[in-house]
């Protein structure tokens, strides 16, 4: 099933590991939000609809981020855009930890979605 991995060159294997690592971090970030939702609902008095809006906005913005990063990659290069989207994603993920209200988290998490999609 995984015999093709043995056929990869060293560089290809490193690339596979790096992309799997990026995918894992993205998946972890998305899943951790689902675990934090009950606490945010209790702490901030958010409704379930508002909590869903935050997750939905991030996914919608990730579609926009993927489209934008793809278009910009043709102009500025794929490596440069990947670097920018990773930095963008990391920065706004960090900022999510400092939000104190539904509105702040909605804005920051939506901006994070741009990097998520671009990556």
CATH topology: Growth Hormone, Chain: A
CATH A-level architecture: Up-down Bundle
Q: Tell me about the biggest sheet? A: none
N-C termini distance: 27 Å
Helical fraction equals: over 70%
| Uncertain ranges | none
Strand elements, count: 0
Rg, rounded, reads: 17 Å
CATH superfamily: MFS general substrate transporter like domains
Proportion in β-strands: under 5%
Arithmetic mean pLDDT: 91
- Helix count equals 4
Number of domains: 1
**Helix/sheet category:** mainly alpha
**What is the CATH first-level class name?**
Mainly Alpha
Shape: globular
Order of helices and strands: HHHH
Can you give keywords for this protein?
single chain; 119 residues; mainly alpha; Growth Hormone, Chain: A; 4 helices
Summarize the structure in words.
There is one protein chain. The protein is an all-alpha fold and 119 residues long. The chain has one domain: MFS general substrate transporter like domains (Growth Hormone, Chain: A). It contains four helices and no strands. α2 packs antiparallel against α3 and α3 packs antiparallel against α4. The radius of gyration is 17 Å and the shape is globular.
């Amino acid at each position: 099933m995984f015999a093709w991995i043995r056929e990869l060159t060293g560089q290809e294997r490193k690339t596979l590991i790096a992309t799997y690592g990026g995918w894992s971090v993205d998946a972890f970030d998305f899943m951790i939000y689902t675990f934090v939702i009950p606490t945010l609902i209790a702490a901030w008095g958010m409704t379930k609809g508002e909590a869903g809006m935050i997750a939905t906005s991030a996914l919608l913005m990730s579609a926009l981020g993927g489209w934008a990063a793809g278009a910009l990659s043709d102009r500025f290069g794929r490596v440069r855009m990947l670097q920018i989207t990773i930095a963008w994603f990391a920065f706004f993920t960090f900022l999510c930890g400092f939000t104190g209200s539904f509105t702040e988290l909605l804005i920051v998490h939506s901006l994070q979605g741009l990097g998520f999609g671009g990556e």
